[in-house]
Design a protein that fits this description.
The protein contains 13 helices and 5 strands. By secondary structure, the protein is mostly helical. Helix 2 (about 35-55) packs across helix 3 (about 75-80), helix 5 (about 115-135) packs across helix 6 (about 160-165) and helix 11 packs across helix 12 (about 280-290).
Amino acid sequence: MAQRKRREYLQLLDAAKAAAETGVDSFNRVRHPYRYQTTLMLLANAWELLAKAVLLQKKESIARGQRGETISGEVAVFRLEQKQVLTQTQAETIQQVISLRHAATHHLLPAVPVEVMQHLLFYSCKFFREVIEKLFPTHLKSLSENYVSLSFTDLTTYADKVQRSVSRVRKSASDKKLVWLLERGIQFDGEAYITEGQFAEKYRGKKKILPHLGLSDFVKTADMIRIVPVQAPRNFTADISLRKGSAADSSLPVLVKKTDIEVDYPLLTRELGLKVGKSQNWAARAVTVLNLKGDPKYHQPVRAGQKALIHRYSAAAEAALREKLVAEPGFDPYHTK
């Protein structure tokens, strides 16, 4: 009996998964002179195949022209955005991968900061898994859940490196090309990319460049990724804290600081109150009202169980409370607006 042929969208899905994981393998090879180029080619290929699998599953044609051709990857991804399979930020991330892939395939890829590559790799794979989990849930188990990558350099984020490249656009041909390639991915309109000339026209005569680019909104709205290896010596615990940065700074670098809790945060809430001549409840309320709690300069929560936390405070927290009481002797944290 002849074996039943697997449906086309499932064949595309299988190929897409293979391409995505081979792209991760390519990026993580120790010695690979064409690492970024092959990674981008495979990731773009993976997304083109996945997008076409989704479209076929939804009974939409992927044909183009009269010679048996199919639509391009950028068009396929654009259609997923239109169908709300992808959010705008997700689609823009993938379109940047495809734009860089075109440069690597058809000419030369400019120098790309590792932070930009790690960002595009991480989020394109993350979004890839999310689409499969949503539309093809039984296929998710065939993908690995963990891909280990090592780094020994002090990295920042995609946003930080993009801002730096934008600042050098007028002086560096390589940075100008990189920013154009990223910008054109974001600016894809469903049919065509903006040209390098159209890109340059966006900021011609302007003192600042970034506010006039689509990349400006992207770095403000997209989540950033920084892979941080945390080495924890014996008797140390590792606490990763995320803090909201200034609205004027989109780079939001991750800061890693080793802390000895007993030394840097020596005071429990009760002890903090005693230091300033107040009760434990007064101190707990005061640090909340004065916004000291949650600020790593003054406060550090330590997990004491599945849900319980022990709150510890620094000498700076004590100093801040003393200064408040000197400036306002009658300060009452229970009756403060």
